[in-house]
Design a protein that fits this description.
79 residues; four-stranded antiparallel beta sheet; 51% strand
């Protein structure tokens, strides 16, 4: 299992999005508004989009598969 802890300066003015680049099993997200526990994600059904951290530490782990984790500032200007 791979576990990643996002930067300790993560704050509520940022979104976290988790995308499956392939079918991924055992995805867990802790410390976010919408947590996941041992979920299966697929590229065709992105359920981990635009989440918000509840604390400065958000963890993402996956047992099998490849994830793309993005942290984006909520105040970024849209063109």
């Amino acid at each position: 299992m791979f576990k990643h802890i996002l930067p300790t300066n993560f704050n509520k003015n940022q979104y976290i999005s988790v995308f499956a680049l392939e079918n991924s099993k055992g995805v867990t997200i802790n410390g976010a508004e919408y947590s996941l526990n041992n979920a299966d994600l697929s590229p065709s059904f992105p359920i981990g989009v635009s989440n918000t951290g509840l604390d400065t530490e958000v963890t993402v782990s996956v047992k099998c598969g490849t994830l793309l984790v993005m942290v984006v500032d909520k105040n970024i200007r849209k063109w």
